[in-house]
Amino acid sequence: MSFMLSSYEIEEYLKKQELLTSEVKESCVYARAIATKEKHLSWGSYQTDVKEAYFLTAINKDQILLVPVNRLTGKLDQDARPVTISLTDLTAIKMKQGRLMNSVQITGAEEEIKLKISKIIVGMAWHDENMQHFMTKMEAFAAQLDNKTPNEKK
């Protein structure tokens, strides 16, 4: 058993969840999500009792997808539904690019999650290939949110 996610495993999971599109496939990255406001990580109906968790993160049209990764096996949690964060539910996206790691802070009306994304992960070539596409899409989302009028923001 390998602790690394393969592109085949990701595609099979996304097909099963009916989420596989070319945009999702090209934007999948492995991320560590950290709760910034609460003592546990939550968004909408997703709740966990820990402050941080690992996710396969991707972008689909006007949504950010967070697919839970099992902490023990490093594989996608087959029983968990992906967390979908709609662009309309967001008030801000802040991005910071570092030398070894990027961070993306996603803020909603009540929730806030910070994603830490390594630029390179040994054994996961798909992550390295998708990183730039993911960051470009997140920048576009951030620009859309910045252009909202104050009344449009929640």
Could you explain the architecture of this structure?
By secondary structure, this protein is of the alpha+beta class. The chain is 25% helix and 34% strand. It contains three helices and nine strands. The strands form two sheets. It has a seven-stranded antiparallel sheet with strand order 6-5-4-1-9-8-7. A two-stranded antiparallel ribbon has the order 2-3. β4 and β5 form a beta hairpin. The longest helix is centred in the last third of the chain and has 22 residues, at 125-146. It is globular and about 40 Å long. The model has no long low-confidence stretch (mean pLDDT 84).
The ordered string of helix (H) and strand (E) elements is HHEEEEEEEEEH
Query: Gyration radius, to the nearest Å?
Result: 15 Å
Number of strands: 9
Distance between the termini: 45 Å
**Helix/sheet category:** alpha+beta
Helix content: 10-25%
Indicate the proportion of strand residues.
25-35%
Q: Biggest sheet, open or closed, and with what strands and sense?
A: 7 strands, antiparallel
Shape, principal axes of CA atoms: globular
Please report the number of helical segments. Answer: 3
Average residue-wise pLDDT = 84
Question: Characteristics of this structure?
Answer:
alpha+beta; two-stranded antiparallel ribbon; 9 strands; globular
